[in-house]
Amino acid sequence: MQRQKRTTIYDIALKLNLAASSVSRALSNSNKVNAATKALVLKTAAEMNYQHNAMASNLRKGNNPTIGVVVPRINQNFFSNIIAGIEEVTYKKGYNLIICQSNELHAREVDCVNALVNQHVSCIIISIAAETGPYEHLQQVLDHQIRLIQFDRVVEELDTFKVINNNEKASYEAVTHLIEQGYRRIALLEGPQQLDIFRHRKEGYLAALRKHNIPVLEELMCENAWTKELGAEATAQLLGLENPPDAIFASTSDFSALGVLEVATNKGIQIPKDLGICGYSNEPFTELTSPSITTIDQYSISMGKTIANLYFQEMEGLEFNVEPKIVSIKPKVIVRKSTQRIPGVNTTA
Amino acid sequence: MQRQKRTTIYDIALKLNLAASSVSRALSNSNKVNAATKALVLKTAAEMNYQHNAMASNLRKGNNPTIGVVVPRINQNFFSNIIAGIEEVTYKKGYNLIICQSNELHAREVDCVNALVNQHVSCIIISIAAETGPYEHLQQVLDHQIRLIQFDRVVEELDTFKVINNNEKASYEAVTHLIEQGYRRIALLEGPQQLDIFRHRKEGYLAALRKHNIPVLEELMCENAWTKELGAEATAQLLGLENPPDAIFASTSDFSALGVLEVATNKGIQIPKDLGICGYSNEPFTELTSPSITTIDQYSISMGKTIANLYFQEMEGLEFNVEPKIVSIKPKVIVRKSTQRIPGVNTTA
DNA sequence: AAAAACAGGGCAATCGATTGCAAAACAAAA
DNA sequence: TTTTGTTTTGCAATCGATTGCCCTGTTTTT
Question: Is A142 in CB contact (< 8 Å) with chain B?
Answer without folding.
Answer: no
